[in-house]
């Protein structure tokens, strides 16, 4: 998997932190991602204020891309906020998939109803 960091000039320690933290977060995904991009942008230039935007975009095979954004005063705070949002999205998606796999499918239920298993009614 490729992790690409854009818009972050100079600070090699922070770039290493970004790659390491994102790699640990992506290890929790069920399917291995193809690529990950981290982008930083200063929204209002040298004026200051809450202006650093961090965008995380994860590409997973046969799925739409997962993205998370956060706006903060510094690149570190923006990245940490976006990473927190990404963790929540991954946990929510994992929970949704777990619930879908636990529900019996309609054909399975129909077969059980036709066999006359107790507790299932044939009324529609």
Descriptive report:
This protein has 124 residues and is an alpha+beta fold. It has a single domain, classed as Double Stranded RNA Binding Domain (2-Layer Sandwich), CATH 3.30.160.100. It is built from 3 helices and 4 strands, in the order E-H-E-E-E-H-H. The protein has helices at residues 12-26, 75-102, 106-114; strands at 2-6, 35-42, 52-59, 66-72. The chain has a 4-stranded mixed beta sheet with strand order 1-2-3-4, with helices on one face. Helix 1 (12-26) runs parallel beside helix 2. It is elongated and about 75 Å long. The mean pLDDT is 83.
Distance between the amino and carboxyl termini: 49 Å
Report the CATH architecture: 2-Layer Sandwich
Cα-based radius of gyration, to the nearest Å: 22 Å
The secondary structure category is alpha+beta
* Low-pLDDT segments, ≥5 res: none
What is the CATH class designation? Alpha Beta
- Could you estimate the helical fraction of the residues in percent? 40-55%
The fourth-level CATH homologous superfamily is Ribosome hibernation promotion factor-like
Order of adjacent strands in the largest pleated sheet = 1-2-3-4
Shape: elongated
Mean pLDDT across every amino acid position: 83
CATH-derived topology: Double Stranded RNA Binding Domain
| Main sheet: strands, sense, barrel | 4 strands, mixed
Q: Topology as H/E string?
A: EHEEEHH
Percentage of residues in strands: 15-25%
Oligomer: single chain
- Count helical runs: 3
* Number of individual domains: 1
How many distinct beta strands?
A: 4
